[in-house]
């Protein structure tokens, strides 16, 4: 297999004195769509911002590598990293109400990425920038793109704004798009439209997608591989189709059971008791053990290793083939 | 009854006759007004010219030693009263170094409609320098702090982060994305402060014997020249209203949401 487009190895992020990512490993290959799944607070967005070097103030990368197209972004000079942003790796943020600048027109915000690059990169003249902006808006299925250029963000609906944000991400032909909960802030009726469009665009342009979400239903429909995160660690990874059918890790299983689509009509939805632990006060051993229905003595004492599972691999003591009482999950 | 007569006369442009000058009070004020306007204008340019770059820098590089010292100095600047700044400046530049004149407007030339300006002669500029620095000194620290605080807030927003993720030139992110949004609250506060500055002209003009309306007002108070005092307050009131209206219009230019609301209402 060829070298991955993005190879994250042992990525650790620290906020002040608290570790929030404890060594995250995963790869994204060219043109591949990978999901990063987990509850709020699992550290999913942290991974995205760490890749782009855009962690906000007290946060910093305290270890690991982010190798993108052969270069480690963690040790890359800030100016060189900034030249990759938008050009090689683009990002779509969660809330389109907040991502667009309220005082600049859509056209200005689209064209400026071409017209005002960092020093050392070629500028595009305004006629061509305008044409490319119109093309990008047309690609995200915005009607009448020419007249949209003059509009301001507050004149557009949430779905339209997210389409504009995606157009901005596409504009410079990146190899990888990181989408951080791109449909969470939107109306349910348009979530599927936006996801379908994003997947279609990635396919037709051969772009890789790192989709960050808590919604396993979205994952199942739009990605090939999925990684499940809990408390700053990846705890299961594998093929999306299999992982969403037969998860190996109790946490993934619990996430799936919490989906409304999985419940029988009229039945109560299963929920996961308790909440994600505070990053400053993680439980001993496996961080999920206080909420896990299969918790054993081992789980409290030591961190589980990674074991192969039918769907890929997972970090859970239940999968240890050497366990005496090794039972499969009920 | 008397007030009714006063309002009636005022509406016809007659604010009474100054007891001291034996001339219509309004004419006396209008004759002195250009000096004050030039002083305020020059001070405003200084305020913007100093506080915008300083405030921006302090927000973009909060840990830089220059930012820290600017913040420290600004506390000092806010605490020192205007008349003390003025007297210290006179002592240093006029008495000790003998570089700059300490009082008056210097040479003035007629501009138009009886507007005597000091901006056309080198002597006039030299005279303008110390008073406008003094007047600016009280506002500059305030604006540096205001711009820094607003800018820090804007730099933390999603749209600025998104601008970084788009890979824009950093100058574009700071000056266009962040600064344009910082401007909105700064314009609002600036409008109010412009009015406050008129009050400070009374102090500044007194220290430098600047022949503007502020000095005139203080003299009128000591002479109990009631018509002149009334006329001054009325003119300052008008200036207040006009500047605030101008500020509101400016706000509409910067913020597209305001512009649209007006079009929608019409």
What does this structure look like?
The complex is a heterodimer of chains A (330) and B (266). By secondary structure, chain A is α/β, with parallel strands linked by helices. Chain A is globular. Chain A is 32% helix and 22% strand. Chain A is built from twelve helices and twelve strands. Chain A has helices at residues 44-52, 78-84, 96-99, 106-115, 126-139, 145-148, 158-170, 188-205, 216-222, 240-245, 250-257, 297-301, and strands at residues 6-15, 18-28, 33-37, 59-68, 71-72, 89-92, 176-180, 208-213, 225-230, 233-239, 306-308, 312-315. Chain A has a domain at 1-88 and 215-260 and 285-324: P-loop containing nucleotide triphosphate hydrolases (Rossmann fold, 3-Layer(aba) Sandwich), CATH 3.40.50. In chain A, the strands form two sheets. In chain A, strands 6-7-8-3-9-10-12-11 form an eight-stranded mixed β-sheet, with helices on both faces. A four-stranded antiparallel β-sheet of chain A has the order 2-1-4-5, covered by helices on one side. Chain B is mainly alpha-helical and 266 residues long. Chain B has one domain: MetI-like fold. Helix content of chain B is 77%, strand content 2%. Chain B has a two-stranded antiparallel sheet. In chain B, strand 1 (109-110) and strand 2 form a beta hairpin. The relative contact order of chain B is 0.14. Residues 262-266 of chain B have low confidence and may be disordered. Chains A and B meet through helix 2 of A and helix 6, helix 7 and helix 10 of B.
> What would you call the shape of chain B?
globular
| Biggest sheet record of chain B | 2 strands, antiparallel
Which structural class fits the helix and strand makeup of chain B? mainly alpha
Q: Which series of helices and strands of chain A comes N to C?
A: EEEHEEHEHHHHHEHEHEEHHHEE
Please state the second-level CATH architecture of chain B: Orthogonal Bundle
Q: Any idea what the CATH superfamily of chain B is called? A: MetI-like
- The whole-angstrom Rg of chain B is 22 Å
| CATH topology (level 3) name of the domain at 1-88 and 215-260 and 285-324 in chain A | Rossmann fold
Using the coordinates above, name the CATH class of chain B: Mainly Alpha
What count of structural domains of chain B?
1
- Widest sheet: strand ordering of chain A: 6-7-8-3-9-10-12-11
């Amino acid at each position: 297999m060829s070298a991955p487009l993005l190879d994250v190895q042992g990525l650790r992020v620290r906020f002040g004195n608290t570790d929030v990512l404890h060594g995250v490993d995963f790869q994204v290959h060219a043109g591949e769509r990978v999901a990063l799944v987990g509850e709020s607070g699992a550290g999913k967005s942290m991974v995205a911002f760490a890749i782009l070097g855009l962690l906000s103030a007290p946060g910093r990368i305290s270890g690991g590598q982010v190798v993108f197209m052969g270069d480690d972004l963690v040790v890359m000079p800030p100016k060189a990293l900034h030249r990759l942003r938008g050009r090689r790796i683009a990002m779509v943020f969660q809330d389109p109400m907040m991502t667009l600048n309220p005082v600049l027109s859509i056209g200005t915000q689209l064209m400026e990425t071409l017209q005002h690059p960092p020093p050392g990169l070629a500028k595009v003249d305004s006629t061509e920038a305008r044409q490319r902006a119109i093309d990008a808006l047309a690609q995200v299925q915005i009607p009448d793109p020419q007249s949209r250029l003059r509009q301001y963000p507050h004149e557009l609906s949430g779905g339209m704004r997210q389409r504009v944000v995606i157009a901005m991400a596409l504009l410079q032909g990146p190899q990888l798009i990181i989408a951080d909960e791109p449909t969470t802030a939107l109306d349910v009726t348009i979530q599927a439209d936006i996801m379908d469009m994003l997947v279609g665009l990635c396919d037709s342009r051969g772009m890789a997608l790192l989709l960050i979400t808590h919604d396993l239903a979205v994952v199942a429909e739009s990605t090939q591989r999925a990684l499940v995160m809990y408390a700053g660690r990846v705890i299961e990874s594998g093929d999306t189709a299999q992982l969403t059918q037969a998860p190996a890790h109790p946490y993934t299983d619990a996430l799936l059971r919490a989906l409304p689509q999985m419940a029988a009509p009229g039945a109560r939805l299963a929920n996961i008791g308790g909440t994600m632990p505070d990053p400053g006060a993680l439980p001993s051993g496996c961080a999920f053990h206080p909420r896990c229905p299969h918790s054993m003595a081992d789980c409290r004492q030591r961190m589980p290793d990674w074991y192969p599972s039918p769907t890929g691999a997972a970090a859970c003591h239940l999968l240890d083939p050497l366990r005496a009482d090794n039972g499969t999950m009920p | 009854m008397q007030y009714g007569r006063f309002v009636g006369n005022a509406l016809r442009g007659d604010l009474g006759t100054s007891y001291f000058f034996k001339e219509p009070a309004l004419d006396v004020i209008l004759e002195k007004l250009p000096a004050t306007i030039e002083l305020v204008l020059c001070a405003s340019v200084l305020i913007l010219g100093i506080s915008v770059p300083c405030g921006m820098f302090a927000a973009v590089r909060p840990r830089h030693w220059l930012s820290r010292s600017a913040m420290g100095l600004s506390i000092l600047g806010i605490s020192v009263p205007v008349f003390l700044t003025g007297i210290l400046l006179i002592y240093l530049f006029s008495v000790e170094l003998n570089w700059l004149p300490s009082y008056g407007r210097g040479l003035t030339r007629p501009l138009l409609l009886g507007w005597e300006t000091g901006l056309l002669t080198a002597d006039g500029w030299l005279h303008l320098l110390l008073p406008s620095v003094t007047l600016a000194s009280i506002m500059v620290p305030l604006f540096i702090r205001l711009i820094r605080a607003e800018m820090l807030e804007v730099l933390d927003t999603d749209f600025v982060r998104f601008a970084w993720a788009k890979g824009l030139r950093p100058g574009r992110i700071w000056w266009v994305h962040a600064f344009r949004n910082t401007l909105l609250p700064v314009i609002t506060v600036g409008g109010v402060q412009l009015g406050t500055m008129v009050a400070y002209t009374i102090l500044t003009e007194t220290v430098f014997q600047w022949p503007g309306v502020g000095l005139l007002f203080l003299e009128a108070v000591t002479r109990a020249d009631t018509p002149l005092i009334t006329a001054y307050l009325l003119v300052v009131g008008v200036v207040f209203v006009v500047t605030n209206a101008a500020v509101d219009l400016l706000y509409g230019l910067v913020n597209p949401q305001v512009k649209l609301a007006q079009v929608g209402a019409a």
